[in-house]
Amino acid sequence: MSKSHFEQRMWRAVEQLADGEVVSFGDVAGRAGRPKASRAAGRMLSKIRDTDLPWWRVVYSNGKLPACRPDVQTERLQAEGVTLENGRVVSAPLGRFEG
């Protein structure tokens, strides 16, 4: 299945996230040129299995982890220095939750 131009831009936005950089689905959509398309970013990332794409660095705007594979996402985020409480990012080395 080929990706649309917008999906390709979202893919690149996620690909470029650094270790410990946590952003929201809306941030991904915004970096791809359509800031109000957070649901499209969520749909795209929900289809990702284990690839080189760092999907675990994308969460809801309030820091909550999506329901899809939260244990794997928690483990990977913590390995990158991200602090979580009750399934929510509270601080990260980079990105929306920096601090």
Explained architecture:
- This protein is an alpha/beta fold.
- Helices cover 37% and strands 15% of the residues.
- The protein has helices at 5-15, 25-31, 38-46, 70-79; strands at residues 21-24, 58-59, 83-85, 88-91, 94-95.
- The strands form 2 sheets. The protein has a 3-stranded parallel sheet with strand order 2-1-5.
- β3 and β4 (88-91) form a beta hairpin.
- α2 (25-31) packs across α3 (38-46).
- It is globular, with a radius of gyration of 12 Å.
- The model has no long low-confidence stretch (mean pLDDT 93).
Key phrases:
99 residues; alpha/beta; Arc Repressor Mutant, subunit A; three-stranded parallel beta sheet; two-stranded antiparallel sheet; 4 helices; 15% strand; globular
- Read across the widest sheet, the strand sequence of neighbours is 2-1-5
Shape: globular
First and last CA, distance: 39 Å
Strand content: 15-25%
Helical amount: 25-40%
Q: Nearest-angstrom radius of gyration? A: 12 Å
Mean pLDDT: 93
Query: How would you spell out the order of helices and strands?
Result: HEHHEHEEE
CATH architecture: Orthogonal Bundle
Name the CATH class: Mainly Alpha
Number of beta strands: 5
The CATH fourth-level homologous superfamily:
Winged helix-like DNA-binding domain superfamily/Winged helix DNA-binding domain
Main sheet, how many strands, which sense, barrel?
3 strands, parallel
